[in-house]
Amino acid sequence: MNEKITIALAGNPNSGKTTIFNNLTGARQHVGNYPGVTVERKEGRLKFKNFDIDVVDLPGTYSLTAYSPDEVVARKVIIEEKPDVLVNVVDASNLERNLYLTTQLKELGVPVVIAMNMADMAEAQGIKFDYQLLSQLLGVEIVRTVGTKKQGIDELLEAVIKVARRKSDLPEKQVKYSSEVEEEIKKIEALLNEDTSVTHEAAASLEGIMSSRDNCLKRWLAIKLLENDKDVIGTVKSQSGAKQVLEQLAKSQEQLKKISGEDTEMLIVDGRYAFIRGACQESTTFTEEDRLSMTEKIDKVLINRLLGLPIFLGIMWLLFQLTFTLGGPPMEWLDAGFGALGEWAAVHMQEGLAQSLIVDGIIGGVGGVVVFLPNIILLFMGIAFLEGSGYMARAAFVMDKLMHKVGLHGKSFIPMLIGFGCTIQAIMATRTLENDRDRLLTMLIAPLMSCGARLPVYTLLIAAFFHESVAGNILFSIYLIGIALAIIMAKVFRKWLLPGESEPFVMELPAYRLPTIKSVLIHMWERSWLYLKKAGTIILAASIIIWTLFTFPIIDPQGNEFESANVQMEQSYAGRIGKAIEPVIAPLGFDWKTGVALVAGFAAKEVVVSTMGTLYSIEDEDALAEEEEGSVKSFADRTREKSGYTPLVAYVLMLFTLIYVPCMATIAVLKRETNGWKWPMFTIGYTCALAWVVCFIVYRGGLLLGIGV
Prior knowledge:
It is a single chain. This protein is α/β, with parallel strands linked by helices. The chain has three domains: about 5-165, P-loop containing nucleotide triphosphate hydrolases (Rossmann fold, 3-Layer(aba) Sandwich); about 180-285, Orthogonal Bundle (Helix Hairpins); about 310-705, no CATH class. The protein contains 32 helices and eleven strands. The protein has a seven-stranded mixed beta sheet, sandwiched between helices. The N and C termini lie far apart (about 70 Å).
């Protein structure tokens, strides 16, 4: 029977941690959330020699000081789940900054192996490392890796096994702070030794650390207390016997402030960096110090004050052009396939409710969503490429000046960009923001970014009502309006709802690198598979419900059959719902059928499309069997003929879908992230009101100007 080892991957964002994780686990990975929080948790498994190795990918974090939720989660996983080995992935080209996290991992007393990643990029910049000497100085095993080329992966696993079996002969090294700081650490440690209840109760509250790490635990607690770590101070305060420890903490902080003139937190930071600099200076040499790196050369253009914003808009425009243009042919093939399937089912099934459910409800509804999978794949592939290349951080940097004017900073723009893929992931990405007010404000505007679920609505309406020569521009305009509205609402909320200045921060600009095909494909597949799963679960259920609401009752109150299918639909349960809300949406150019689709879209935005698919199939029982020039009529053709929309109404419907209430899953995540229903209900209310106002202005303005009518 194979021996089991659990390892956790820790590292700074953009250190190549995800690439190492993918190299280790390949397709043997699954994604969920950490218990009790909506931070994404990736786990995988592999076999190496006689070992079964479980791999946990921790959230990317710069430190373990618990400023942000991601840092809290990473620290709790290390303490509570007690991995056998921590693999610390560091960017070799930014070694000093990355090793700051390493010093904190070592202070927790968990065995650490360093994967010196992107070593080829560092070497190309003229940086040479003495790996053996650096290992000795840091007291950890170090393995040279190049994740994009799969170099060093077996050596990394060998080092993990060596450390897990406690066979490493490296001396234990911890950061030694200044004599004054060490003296105060010892005073607090002494009290923790005298009153072990504080140590053990604090450890129990944090789910404890293995008994063999007790000494590290006491030192770690003392350092964290001196750092003013709110999480640890709160934990210690809640324990019996904490009074003496907290009194000594206050005295120690006052003493150190008096001696150095600096806060203890800064003294701890300085001590760690002094340790890191000393180790790096001994083991690192620079052969070409004055040469501009390729990243610096590219940045001279991409983040130029004048060119940066136009280039960003150009890249996004190109992404949406490719999404629509390249996705067109495979979308048509899928559409024809589902049309043929519906035709076959209509011919081979006995006419009745069962046939209608299969043809109109399931094939018409779910098929109407699945046909847009090629566009979704292309969009997610493009986003994965931009993330992996390092350009996403540049986009945030370019937008930083504009974001500051509305009370946010460029770092908030990264969750907004992630929102192009999924609003839920965008809300989760706000966990990297340290300030609670900035985080809440970013969460409130994130739903205004066009997620992938809205893309089927745009694609259907653009294909039906706009010429292919302008299709990409129409799509780009919708995404651009979402960004503009998010920025405007951020300004409004900052002024009236969440006043205050945004906190300054340093924007990290990682080195450019060409993402691996495997990494891009894994990201693309994960998100596309979620889309397909949604089509097979939520959208399937919604399509059946919508079909039921449109189909029943099948006889009028007098017990007679309805005189026509259209009359029956108007008198159906869905028809009554649509008629009830029609007066509210009629000023926007929408009829009751559109109202039903928009209400159904609250479950998931793709359901707007599946509702249309079901509706138009029921409305014309022969629609799927009709042939024009030898081919089954496409979904876009039926939408154009049956909806009664003009291009103006189609554009307004795209705008409304962009702005109005996010899906139920987003609302649920927002409720968990804000610990209550106040902000989710506010989000539902303001997005619906904003959607109505914006669409009214566009529709009425378009009518006055005679545009798109």
